[in-house]
Specification:
Blueprint (H helix, E strand, L loop, with lengths): L5 E5 L4 H12 L4 E6 L11 H5 L6 H15 L3 E4 L5 E3 L4 E3 L4 E3 L2 E4 L3 E3 L13 E3 L3 H12 L4 E5 L3 H12 L3 E6 L10 H13 L3 E4 L3 E7 L2 E7 L4 E3 L2 E4 L3 E3 L2 H6 L9 E2 L11 E3 L4 E4 L6 E2 L4 H15 L13 E5 L2 E7 L9 E9 L10 E9 L5 E8 L3 H14 L3 H6 L14 H10 L2
Parallel strand pairs: 1-2, 1-7, 2-3, 7-19, 9-16, 10-11, 10-16, 11-12, 18-20
Antiparallel strand pairs: 4-5, 5-6, 8-17, 13-14, 14-15, 20-21, 22-23, 23-26, 24-25, 25-26
This protein binds flavin-adenine dinucleotide (FAD).
Flavin-adenine dinucleotide binds next to helix 1, strand 2, helix 5 and helix 8.
C-alpha cells in the first residue's frame, strides 16, 4: 500500500490552517498535521480590537467553531502546545520537543512576533500585553473587567491605531506613544494626520517623536511609563504594538534564503529555497506588483492568498500568486484610512501624485462626507500605480476600485471613464474615483 503523503504545517493561527484546508481540497488522503505552540488554532486576530470595543461579542466562540471545522470536517490533525524546535531539511524531519515528525512537504506559517521595546521591567509586568493572540485578548479583557481605564499604547502603526480605536470605544483614556515624528509612517503625512486628528477627536492623546525610557512598577504591575524626555504617563494597562519581526529563525537555521528584513522570499508557487518547503503568511515577502521587488506586508488578506497557494502547491496542485498591492484599510475614530499599490511615500521619479477631494455621495443626501484622495500614477503612460484615501464615509468601496484599477493596469483616462454605480445615498453622478481620474487626465 502506498503511504499517504505527509504535509506538515508549522503555525496554526491564520495562514497554517488556510494552507491545510487548501491542501486537503487537492489531496484527499494526505496526512496533514498542523503544529501550533499555542493553545488555539485558526483564530482571527483581526477581531481583537473589536472584542476590546465589545462590537464583537464572543471572538473565542467564533475561533473555536473554526478550529473544530478544521479537525472534524476536514480531518486535519491539529496538535496544539507543540513547539517545532528545528527543521532537518536534509532528512525532511521536524524536531519536536520529544519526537520527530517526517514530512514529504512542509508549509512554514510561523508568522511574526511583536517587537518589545528594550525597557527594563516592561515585558515581565502582568498588566503589559502584546496585541497578537487570543491569550493577549484574555489578559486585556480581564484587566478591563477589573476596572483598568488608563491605557498606554506603545506604537502608532496599524496595530497601535487599531488598538487605540478599540480602547477608545470601550471608554478608556488612551495615550499613543510613537517613536517616529508621526503615526502610520507607511502613509502620507496628510492621510496620517487625518488619522491622528480623528483619534484625538475621539479623546486620545497622541505623542509622536516619543519613546518609553523606563517604567515604574508596584509589584507585578506597571503604574507609570516614563518617556525619554521625562514625561510620565500613568497606566493601568500597557499595550505593545511597536512593530513586528518575522519569525523565521527555524528556516534560517535550516539553511533557507532569507531577506535582510528577516522575511523569507517565496516564488509565485509559495516555494522557499529549500526543497519541499513552502512558506506563507506574515513571515514571507512577496513580489509586489507595481515595483516587482519582494516586499513584506503583515496583512491578513495577503497572508490568506499566500497560504492558499502554499497549500495547493504543497499538495501537488498548481497555483500562482496574483498581484500583491499591499491594500489595507483601518478605522481611526470616525475616520477610515486606506491604501493600495504605490503611494506618495514610495513613489519613483516617473510617478505623479495628485491630491483631490470629492464627496462620498451627493451632498444633498444626508451623511455625505468628503473623501481625501491621493492618486499616484505614472507620468509617461498615465497608468494608475496606487492610491491613499481618508474620510468618514465611502472609503472602503473606493479603495477596492483603485486596487482593481492598479491590478488591471488601468490608466487615469480609463479611471475617469469607469461606469460606476450611482444613486444619491451611495455616490455622486461622478464617483470620487472618476473625479480623481478626471483631475489627473486634465492636469
Ligand atoms: C491586532 C491585529 C489586528 C489585525 N487586523 C488586521 C486587519 O484588520 N486586516 C488585515 O489585513 N490584517 C490584520 N492583521 C494582520 C493579520 O491578521 C495577522 O498578522 C495574521 O494573524 C497573520 O497570520 P499568520 O498565521 O501568518 O501568522 P501569526 O498570526 O503570527 O501566527 C503564527 C503562528 O505560528 C505559531 N508558531 C510560531 N513558531 C512556532 C513553532 N516553532 N512551533 C509551533 N508553532 C509556532 C505561533 O504560535 C502562531 O500561532 C491584524 C493583526 C493583528 C495582530
Amino acid at each position: 500500500m502506498v503511504e499517504p503523503r505527509v504535509i506538515a504545517i508549522v503555525g496554526g493561527a491564520l495562514s497554517g490552517p488556510t494552507a491545510a484546508l487548501k491542501a486537503r481540497e487537492i489531496d484527499r488522503t494526505a496526512r496533514i498535521v498542523i503544529l501550533e505552540q499555542g493553545a488555539a488554532v485558526r483564530y482571527a486576530v483581526g477581531g481583537l480590537a473589536y472584542s476590546v470595543s465589545r462590537e464583537v461579542a464572543d471572538l473565542t466562540a467564533a475561533n473555536r467553531r473554526q478550529a473544530q471545522l478544521v479537525e472534524r470536517v476536514h480531518h486535519i490533525e491539529v496538535r496544539t502546545r507543540v513547539r517545532v524546535e528545528r527543521i532537518d531539511a536534509e532528512s525532511r524531519q521536524l524536531v519536536l520537543d520529544k519526537e520527530r515528525l517526517r514530512y514529504d512537504r512542509l508549509i512554514f506559517a510561523a508568522g511574526a512576533e511583536s517587537i518589545v521595546p528594550d525597557v527594563a521591567g516592561l515585558e515581565t509586568a502582568r498588566n503589559v500585553f502584546r496585541f497578537r493572540t487570543p491569550a493577549d485578548l484574555k489578559g486585556i479583557s480581564a484587566a478591563l473587567d477589573r476596572g483598568a481605564r488608563r491605557v498606554v499604547i506603545l506604537g502608532g502603526g496599524y496595530f497601535g491605531v487599531e488598538a487605540a480605536d478599540g480602547f477608545l470605544r470601550r471608554k478608556c483614556r488612551v495615550t499613543i506613544v510613537e517613536r517616529e515624528p508621526r503615526l502610520l509612517s507607511r502613509h502620507s503625512e496628510t492621510i496620517a494626520a487625518m488619522a491622528a486628528e480623528a483619534l484625538q477627536g475621539a479623546g486620545a492623546t497622541v505623542l509622536t517623536g516619543a519613546a518609553p525610557a523606563s517604567v515604574m512598577r508596584e509589584g507585578s504591575q506597571v503604574t507609570t511609563v516614563v518617556l525619554a524626555d521625562g514625561r510620565r504617563l500613568k497606566a493601568d494597562l500597557v499595550v505593545i504594538a511597536a512593530g513586528l519581526r518575522p519569525r523565521t529563525d527555524l528556516l534560517r537555521a535550516a539553511g533557507a534564503r532569507l531577506l535582510p528584513d528577516g522575511t523569507v522570499p517565496i516564488d509565485e508557487h509559495a516555494a522557499t529555497s529549500l526543497p519541499g518547503v513552502f512558506a506563507c503568511g506574515v513571515c514571507v515577502s512577496v513580489p509586489h506588483a507595481p515595483w516587482g521587488r519582494p516586499i513584506w506586508f503583515a496583512q491578513a488578506a495577503m497572508a490568506d492568498k499566500t497560504a492558499q497557494v502554499a497549500g495547493i502547491c504543497a499538495a501537488g496542485g498548481d497555483a500562482r500568486l496574483g498581484a500583491v498591492l499591499g491594500t489595507a484599510i483601518l478605522r481611526a475614530g470616525d475616520t477610515t484610512i486606506a491604501r493600495t499599490g504605490v503611494t506618495s511615500t514610495d513613489a519613483g521619479p516617473d510617478a505623479a501624485v495628485l491630491h483631490v477631494t470629492a464627496p462620498s455621495h451627493d451632498e444633498f443626501f444626508p451623511g455625505s462626507e468628503p473623501i481625501a484622495i491621493e492618486l499616484t500614477y505614472q507620468r509617461s503612460t498615465g497608468r494608475v500605480l496606487g492610491a491613499e484615501l481618508a474620510g468618514r464615509a465611502g472609503v472602503d468601496k473606493r479603495i477596492d476600485v483603485f486596487a482593481t484599477a492598479v491590478a488591471g493596469g488601468l490608466t487615469v483616462e480609463q479611471l475617469a471613464a469607469l461606469d460606476l454605480a450611482y444613486a444619491p445615498p451611495y455616490s455622486a453622478v461622478r464617483d470620487p474615483v472618476n473625479v480623481a481620474g478626471n483631475a489627473a487626465t486634465t492636469r
